[in-house]
Amino acid sequence: MFDEEIQKLGLTVKKVSEGGEEGDEEKTRYYVVMKDHPRAIDARTFGWRIDDLAILAATLMYILSRRGKAPLKEVERNLQSKFPKWRVEYNIDRFIRMGYLSEDDKGMVYVGWRTRAEIDAKTLLDLLVGKEAKEE
Amino acid sequence: MRTLKRRERSTPQAGERDYPSDPRLTIALRIIDLCRTISERGIDPFEVEVCEFFERLSPFLDQVRSLEELYLDVDAVLGLSNVIHQQGEWVRHRSSLLYFDPLLVMLKVEALTPEELADILLKAWHPILEMERLSKTGLREAIEYWNNLPSLEERVMRLDAQEVEAGSLNATDLARLGFLTEEAFTSALEGLWSELREEGETSYWNFIDRDSYEETVRRAYMVSFLVSYGYATLRVKPLEEEITLEALHQKLEATDMVEISSIPIALSYEDWLERREGNDGGGGSRG
Questions:
Q1: Enclosing H/E stretch for B97
Q2: pLDDT, tens digit, for every residue of B160-189?
Q3: Å between B110 CA and nearest CA of chain A
Q4: How far is CA B23 from the centre of its chain?
Q5: Percent of chain B at pLDDT above 70?
Q6: pLDDT tens-digit profile of B236-256?
Q7: Which of B106, B108, B126 has its CB closest to that of A14?
Q8: Which residues in chain B touch residue A45, judged by CB atoms under 8 angstroms apart?
Q9: Are B118 and A121 in contact (CB < 8 Å)?
Q10: Looking at the whole model, is its pTM more than 0.80?
Q11: In 3D, which of B89, B106, B110 has the Cα closest to residue B43?
Q12: DSSP, res B286
């Protein structure tokens, strides 16, 4: 009912299970998210630079392809071939603070709660594969 | 064993431990290290040849001599069981729609420009709605904070800060800080010397005054170098309250028999403004 109402405003309710376990209502969180994706011009008004978006995209693609976790050092090393070191380190810290990534004391980074709530992982990886195929 | 050897080279944990001379214990410890590495670093669990390792471990239980060795055996079996669990997860992940080969993903990321990567993220992004608004409670807290806030004067008094006297910088300091190069300074000095030579004897204030105070100060600063280095001379006429400046066509050497004295000249903004207003009323301005 609520979801139907907010869909009229271009919003929707996203259900996210903590730890990915479906059915455990106590561990389930509901978020109101944008139904459609934002345009590049909208992202700039959120305070995001193109490089920030690109680093988040590359980080998530790398982690998602590694079953949702990867050593931080490896992630940083891979990103540094494409982006300046200082920007990579600054952004990864920022993404951890914002909840897009999480980190444990063994130096592994994981997909964070906010990524599960906001990013459609399947679309992200599909587009990555499709993007180059289209250009070829 | 092939896989085990490969892991030994690639993981610091396996290389850091000093293994005992007893081959039974060494095998158990190596298996434990390998399983831990697989679990911690997210490496493909199928790289562990579980059956082979179980076979190598199987005689260990019969040869156990102490409780510690038994724990070691249990640890190794637990590690291998964990690897089997991870293999199950790996299969589930690979069969899911989310499976993409990590190497393929890395190559594709490498090939795309930041703009293309950002574009992909945007198309998969559904940002959480955030709403910021003022509530009655928030307003009440703000009023309370404002009413309890000491005045600015009181807060400034409490600041534990020391007033520092303004310092001074010479040309060497500026050059050291990267604001001025020696070449640029010499070239500017030569330009001014040449300008002064063309003017002949002239009023000091007419020569240095320009439309902006900054430029006036800069010229006064440069003139002080011309005079100090012996490329120009200053004459002060106290009765007329006049200072004249004249370029010397040949540099004055320290050995020349002339009286050398230092003349401090104040360059205040108010005086400069007064002179400019006087010039505007009475004649043309430079600049």
A1: none
A2: 656 666 777 776 777 666 666 767 778 888
A3: 7
A4: 53
A5: 77
A6: 776 667 888 988 877 666 555
A7: B126
A8: none
A9: no
A10: no
A11: B89
A12: -
